[in-house]
Design goal:
Keywords: Annexin, Calcium, Calcium/phospholipid-binding, Metal-binding, Repeat. By secondary structure, the protein is an all-alpha fold. The protein is 71% helix and 0% strand. It contains 20 helices and no strands.
């Protein structure tokens, strides 16, 4: 996995904090200075800067940034500067609170993070909102979608690589029958997707492909009339089997068509910059024959654009 973030090996948290303070002073905020510092610091370094800023000025850097910046740029910087578990808790809360819950975000967090990271997000959510992530998911969704999301979000999967081939075959058959019968809300389907390790699930998905000559995701969306539950199952399977492909498509959908989905674009860039954004960029180029930097630059503007391009690893 290759990150796109370009961060120095050494930095002085105190100097960074002082430079940020200077960027807030005067007539207008110096956004370029903020981007050049925060856009080149990894998770640990950003935490050090927040602590140094607090010690020097008895002020919360995150709150200060919120008051100095605005719009999509403010949102992106805010999400970037948080610890990853806390950031995912915020993203989950925003997704849950939408008029129609954005279940993709809940699925990404549940199916892509490691079991330990998912646990950390649930703790951070609890701490921030004084409610559990699962109770909020349950309160804002209903029916079969609720069953699936609550099962995914409360999962604590085995994280090792051992797999059981016999189990892979029998569970590939269960999934196959459910798809054939259009019984997408089958409890066995939800049990399999929410309890098995990723390695075991990938073995089942591969088994399915071997037996049917086509991927489970293709067959799942084979109908002309695709319901929300099918789409959610499809997203979960893609997040488990190939997160990078899933994110490439999320970014592509965010910037194509009329108007950009800034929320989705920011989410992918901010959450993947320190993980595998370089790989996602390569995939994007293969699929679209245009670089992601170029596509993002075309669809965004101002400080927001400059910040995203910095996280994408574009050299000034």
């Amino acid at each position: 996995m290759a990150a796109s973030l370009v961060a120095p090996d050494t930095h002085s948290p105190t100097e960074d904090a002082e430079a940020l303070r200077k960027a807030f002073k005067g007539w207008g905020t110096d956004e370029k200075a903020i981007i050049s510092i925060l856009g080149h610091r990894n998770e640990f370094q950003r935490k050090q800067i927040r602590q140094a800023y607090e010690e020097l000025y008895q002020e919360d850097l995150i709150k200060r940034l919120e008051s100095e910046l605005s719009g999509d740029f403010e949102k992106a910087v805010y999400r970037w500067i948080l610890d990853p578990a806390d950031r995912d808790a915020v993203l989950a809360n925003v997704a849950i609170k939408k008029a129609e819950t954005d279940y993709h975000v809940i699925i990404e967090i549940s199916c892509i993070l490691s079991p330990e990271d998912l646990l950390a997000v649930r703790r951070a959510y609890h701490c921030r909102y004084k409610r559990s992530l699962e109770e909020d998911v349950a309160a804002h969704t209903s029916g079969d979608l609720r069953k699936l999301l609550v099962a995914l979000v409360t999962a604590y999967r085995y994280a090792g690589h051992e797999i059981n081939e016999r189990l892979a075959k029998s569970e590939a058959d269960i999934l196959s029958d459910a798809i054939k019968d259009k019984a997408y809300n089958n409890e066995e389907v939800i049990r399999i997707l929410s309890s098995r390790s990723k390695a075991q699930l990938i073995a089942s998905f591969n088994r399915y492909r071997d037996e049917h000559g086509t991927s489970i995701t293709k067959n799942l969306l084979g109908d002309s009339d695709v319901g929300t539950l099918q789409k959610a199952l499809h997203a979960a399977i893609r997040c488990i089997s190939d997160p990078r492909k899933y994110f490439e498509k999320t970014v592509r959908n965010a910037i194509k068509g009329n108007g950009t989905d800034e929320d989705a674009l920011t989410r992918v860039i901010v959450t993947r910059a320190e993980r595998d954004l370089k790989d996602i960029k390569e995939l994007y180029y293969q699929r679209n024959s245009v670089s992601l930097d170029h596509a993002v630059a075309k669809e965004t503007a101002g400080d927001y654009k400059a910040f995203l391009l910095t996280l994408l690893g574009k050299e000034d």
